[in-house]
TrEMBL record:
Keywords: CBS domain
UniProt cross-references to Pfam families, sorted A to Z: BON, CBS
Superkingdom to which the source organism belongs: Bacteria
Database matches in InterPro entries: BON_dom (IPR007055), CBS_dom (IPR000644), CBS_dom_sf (IPR046342), Diverse_CBS-Domain (IPR051257)
SMART domains reported in the protein's UniProt record: CBS
Annotated protein name in UniProt: Signal transduction protein
Gene3D superfamilies cross-referenced by the UniProt entry: 3.30.1340.30, CBS-domain (3.10.580.10)
Protein species of origin: Amycolatopsis alba DSM 44262
PANTHER family associated with the record: CBS DOMAIN-CONTAINING PROTEIN, CBS DOMAIN-CONTAINING PROTEIN CBSX3, MITOCHONDRIAL
């Protein structure tokens, strides 16, 4: 799974000239841990977090702008960044959100909540989506049985070759909430 599949887009952002009070209002009203800080063209300059807001309030807060408080340098990711890499970076650097940029411009944000959301997706919803993808791939002919337990997808049936197995594995992994894929050959019953 990649950032593009879980990111919040369009991203709510702020600018360096935004007053502290206004930025704090966005953080608290929307329930965000942080906001990307962008220039007039949408390039990410930094992030403004709850911690930055608290520093500003402690320093009196009057007349202070986001640009004076924002965290720099800012870590960013791309839409193709793998979720495992996002999680690793968030844990290692204690980040609560990461701006997603494409060709230097903000296209979304991934928060810890975005990372967690697919993990709590019901197994039946995952199974239905995986089954639908595989049915489309097979031309709507029932070829495989799909079962999901704790986000682990078990696909059983007959596979033409290793290439088809790789395609089915890749298809299943595109579904939010999938944590593992197991493909098992189903042998035809003896007569």
């Amino acid at each position: 799974m990649r950032a593009s599949e879980i990111m919040t887009s369009p991203a709510v952002a702020t600018t360096p000239t935004t007053p502290l009070r206004e930025a704090v209002a966005v953080l608290t009203e929307k329930g965000f841990a942080g906001l990307p800080v962008v220039d007039d063209e949408g390039r990410v300059l930094g992030t403004f977090t709850e911690f930055d807001a608290l520093r500003g309030i402690r320093a009196s807060g009057e007349g202070i702008t986001v640009g004076e408080l924002m965290s720099v340098p800012v870590e960013v990711i791309t839409p193709s960044t793998e979720v495992t890499e996002i999680g690793r970076r968030m844990l290692a650097d204690r980040l609560r959100c990461l701006p997603v940029v494409e060709e230097g411009f903000l296209v979304g944000v991934v928060s810890r909540r975005d990372l967690l959301r697919p993990l709590v997706r019901p197994d039946d919803a995952i199974a239905a989506q995986v089954h639908s993808l595989m049915s489309d791939y097979a031309g709507h002919r029932p070829k495989w049985t799909v079962e999901v337990d704790g986000g682990c997808v078990h696909v059983s049936g007959e596979f033409r070759d290793e290439a088809e197995r790789r395609v089915l594995d890749a298809l299943a992994r595109t579904v939010p909430g999938v944590v593992a894929v197991v493909l098992a050959d189903r042998n035809p019953a003896s007569t």
